[in-house]
Amino acid sequence: MNGMIKYGYLIPLLPLIGFLINGLGRNFLSKKISSTIGSGVLILSFVCSLLVFNQVTKPGFNTQVLFLFDFIKTAGLDIPFALQFDQLSALFLLIITGIGSLIHIYSAAYMHEETEQHYARYFAYLNLFVFFMLILVLGSSYVTMFIGWEGVGLSSYLLIGYWFSNNNYNNAAKKAFVMNRIGDLGFLLAIFWMLSQFGVITYTGVFAEASTMPLSAITGITLLLFIGAMGKSAQIPLYTWLPDAMAGPTPVSALIHAATMVTAGIYMIARSNIMFSLAPVSQNLVAIIGIATALLAATIALKQNDIKKVLAYSTVSQLGLMFLALGVGSYTAGVFHVMTHAFFKALLFLGAGSVIHAMHHEQDIYKMGGLRKKLPITHITFLIGCLAIAGIPPFAGFFSKDEILTAALEKNVVYYLLGLLTSLMTAFYMFRMYFLTFHGNFRGTEEQYHHVHESPAAMTMPLMVLALLSIVGGWVGIPTVFAEDAHRLSSFLAPVFTGVHHEAKAEHLSHSLELSLMAGVVVLIIVSIFAAKSMFAKEGLTAEKSSSFGKLLENKWYVDELYDKIIVQPINHIASFFSRIIDNKIIDATVNGVGKLVQFSSRQMRLLQSGQVGSYVLIMVVSIIIFFIFQMFWKI
Amino acid sequence: MPINYYIFLSVCLFSIGIVGVLTRRNAIIIFMCIELMLNAVNLLLVAFSRMHHAAAYALDNSTLVGSEAQIFVFFIMVVAAAEVTVGLAIIVMLYRNIHSVDINFLNRLKH
What is the rounded CA–CA span in Å between residue A269 and residue A290? Predict the structure, then answer.
């Protein structure tokens, strides 16, 4: 233990302090102070993360575990609360605290309309969220990760339902919470299974013994872990909470859905790569669910008119691609895409927030249009974000997406084709949104048009930083086709991903094939962008009437309605049965019956107390005689 | 003298006490009947004590077996005396208040 890592506990501690100050002092802190504290602690935490990262990148670095205290210590069960610093957690630290800081700074301006009390509450929640997220990635055991995991679920509930006076938002928050709980149950069962199978729960302990365990146990554990990841990372069938979670303030969406919470599932599977590599069944399932989610969400995003809903479905879709990468065994590509996605999706969400802010909380892209002159900085940065997510070189998204597609092709050509289709749809719907928002003529009201204004510097500055990162962020992972050993991320993460089977590399694609595929993909993406331009960059567009298939997409394949029919309503019926029959007729009747019986019998017994001393004595004597008779004849 | 006689006498005294308590309305008479019952029990205790002691003494002339009951009788007497004190005081107060010792008047305590 040496260097900065000795003080590594400061990284999660600082946001916790910020949470306590803002949460407890929300009634008397001014907006300036609470935003300074809220962002300040995170910037400090980011600085600490940078120092840690710097130490981790030094040659000859080995994984270090910073022991803090015993969480559970009994005979045969020893769960320490410790922080693990290695390449994977250091990378996630940078993403979380770095993008988190930008989002905090952005929030300070975005939320300026709130009252002091709610403003401080907002920052308290944000800090709490970051704290739990840091615990999640820093924990050295699955139990510690689970603490962060649950905490993230809680604080996302608080943040999504931040505007709690709107009941729809509360319902969205509840939906997110309940959906996450379903996944958490899987994770929890996996932890119990690991404890009974391995006896330890720390990463080092579990991974050291993983290869000696029976395949069925490993498969079961990894499947349960994946159920947890499904909930947190919004995969089929638990993805419906994420689009609804757009109810929260836009910076919250950026934080939760770009940089942090939804990537927790990716982090967990990447962390457990040794076990997943041992269980091909689970890996295939991860890949299938991933590509199915990617495709489904992309089709839905084609027809959404709410700027945040489009981004939400694109997030689900991108997460699906990351799971595809994990499923085909290319953990580096998955984590790489987490990183670049964090950059450009945070940028897009914050850009959308800037647009919404300028439009006074109008989110319908058919009520926008032609905003590029009014919002120059937002426009340029948003365009960069769209180019990055579409996968145009040399923007960040190109490299990570290409790596995922290549890895998918090496595994199975079907994955590749579906992934390609998803990418094309991504480019199409992102540019549909872009053209509808920034090009064409303004379709909102006259009054809105006059009020449109560029956002303050506190909001545009994070946009510019993220735009820069969206351009250069992919350069750490330049594929070997362009230059040997230029994939610095891959060699950086190599010590963590020891479970990857290297023999798979044997059937590597030839460089010429890879290059021509890459070029083909880029051309196709550019074609779909121009298709979007020709359809949506026109003057005088109105919300189009959809055909029957379009209606299906507009209504999100009716998945919410399906869940309502097959899960929510039956549960409601069972609940009402229990409340009407079991609770009212049986439990209440028993409890009330006991009371009634006591009342009735005491009313009868009351008659015995006549006040006649003679009758008391008579009763006494008769009772004594009865006792005697019992004693004599029954011999109790 | 056989123990039966003592038992018989005790039962008679006790029954007289019970009948008295049940049938009489004068508080002082009831009180006396209760004393009668107590003393019937005392008599029985002493009689059994004597019987057991005599049996044990025949085997071992230094034994004290059976004599405990006689000590017990003294306890009962002391307790009875204390009880009489309280009871008579209640009766005196009763008489002062309602100029009667008829227990049927006591049912007004109920209200």
Answer: 13
Assign residue A370 a region: left if phi > 0, alpha if psi is -120 to 50, beta otherwise? left
**DSSP for residue A167:** H
Q: What are phi and psi of A139, to 5 degrees?
A: -55, 145
In one letter, which amino acid is A603?
Answer: R
With CB atoms and an 8 Å threshold, state whether B21 touches A617: yes
The rounded distance, in Å, linking the Cα atoms of A300 and A554 is 7
CB–CB contact B104 A621 (8 Å)? no
B51 touching A (Cβ < 8 Å): no
pLDDT at A201 over 90: no
Averaged pLDDT score across all residues of chain A: 86
Residues of A in CB contact (< 8 Å) with B are 609-614, 617-618, 621
SS3 assignment, position B38: helix
**A504 has pLDDT over 50:** no
Show Cβ contacts of residue A53 under 8 Å, excluding neighbours closer than 6 positions.
A90, A91, A93, A94
Residue boundaries of the structural domains of chain B:
3-110
Write down the pLDDT at residue A305.
86
What pLDDT, in 10s, does the model give residues B33-87?
A: 999 999 999 999 999 998 888 888 888 888 888 888 889 999 999 999 999 999 9
Would you list the DSSP string of A29-61? --HHHHHHHHHHHHHHHHHHHHHHHHHHHSTT-
Task: Let me know if domain B3-110 sits in CATH 1.10.10.1760.
Answer: no
Q: What is the pTM of this model?
A: 0.79
| pLDDT > 90? residue A116 | no
Q: What is the pLDDT of residue A512?
A: 82
Q: Where are the alpha helices (DSSP H) in A237-306?
A: 241-244, 250-254, 264-271, 273-278, 280-301
CB pairs under 8 A between A and B: 26
